[in-house]
Design goal:
homodimer; 188 residues; mainly beta; Pnp Oxidase, Chain A; 7-stranded antiparallel β-sheet; 3-stranded antiparallel β-sheet; 12% helix; 41% strand
């Protein structure tokens, strides 16, 4: 069949590469970049992040019971990568990357002003899976940059933000538009 | 801050749009397209899919205790969208889309030959969240199309497969290469 078989691994891609902001007060504010994230339920809107317990942000998120998922773009790609590589033990990531913390409305963690979409999340449970613990969470509020809202249609154009994805160790822009959901059954 | 606040919703993007193949025997073989999927643990390699219990595939996956995640590409985009829109109650999706079921090695569900990467998954638990139930799963084996393995380096070039993503109701190719993980701290 022209295929090679590998031992089990993590091969679901492309994934988002989100900056998760956390901390209960300004002196704790930190950012960790995560691709082990996604939506797990539509109603109620729920999502998860999986984090290694040895990461500096792990206890910040666990103790505060909340965090913010900030979507990332081409112009944030350098900061996105860097916040996934260095530790908040050694760096003030907001200050060193010129990112602006903004108070959220439902959780104590800050939002990143420069991100086009901020998703406030409240932790509902933590599942210890192995290398990673999964924070199962409920979405509490969403904030979107109004400059991407079309005046006529009120549609939010996420595709105009320069949003990026992470695929098998590499970052990419979202590329060519293929079709809308349901395009395969649309009447011409 | 130039942001508008929305009520809670599902806004984590871009996500994969995978074809999940399921069924315990040829007469049951079906495909459901899912974006509520991702990696939840690196070691052991674990992932999830979230499925509405009223979907035809739900009981196929639950009863068999396994399924296959098949990554999707530009050339599979039409089939990917269609398999997310119509029901296996009314359609033989493999036959109608000319897709080839291939026996997997660890689960009873078939793999889709035309997909560049097949991920065999065994269900470990089901969490009932609301509209969707989350199948928490362990990756049992991976099969990759050998034509994307570079002869010299043995690297698997997922970025050469034409892999696609799903973002806020639209499908896109993975676009321009930005950098490898760690690029922000690499010595020049």
């Amino acid at each position: 069949m022209g295929k090679v078989t590998w031992k089990p691994g993590t091969m679901i891609y492309p994934l988002p590469a989100v900056m998760v902001s956390c901390g209960a007060g300004e002196n704790e504010y930190n950012i960790i970049t995560i691709s082990w994230t996604g939506t797990i339920c539509t109603d109620p809107p729920m999502c998860y992040i999986s984090v290694r317990p040895e990461r500096y942000s792990y206890n910040l998120i666990k103790n505060a019971g909340g965090y913010v998922i900030n979507l990332t773009t081409s112009s944030l790609a350098g900061a996105t990568d860097w916040c996934g590589v260095v530790s908040g033990k050694d760096h003030n990531k907001f200050r060193e990357k010129g990112l602006t913390p903004v108070r959220a409305t439902k959780v104590s963690a800050p939002m990143i002003l420069e991100s086009p979409v901020n998703i406030e999340c409240a932790v509902r449970s933590i599942t210890e899976l192995g290398s990673h613990h999964m924070f199962i969470s409920e979405v509490m509020a969403i904030h979107a940059d109004e400059k991407y809202i079309e005046k006529e249609t009120k549609a939010f154009r996420l595709d105009k933000t320069g949003i990026i994805c992470y695929s098998h160790g590499k970052y990419f822009t979202a590329g060519e538009f293929i079709g809308k959901f349901g395009f395969s059954v649309k009447k011409k």
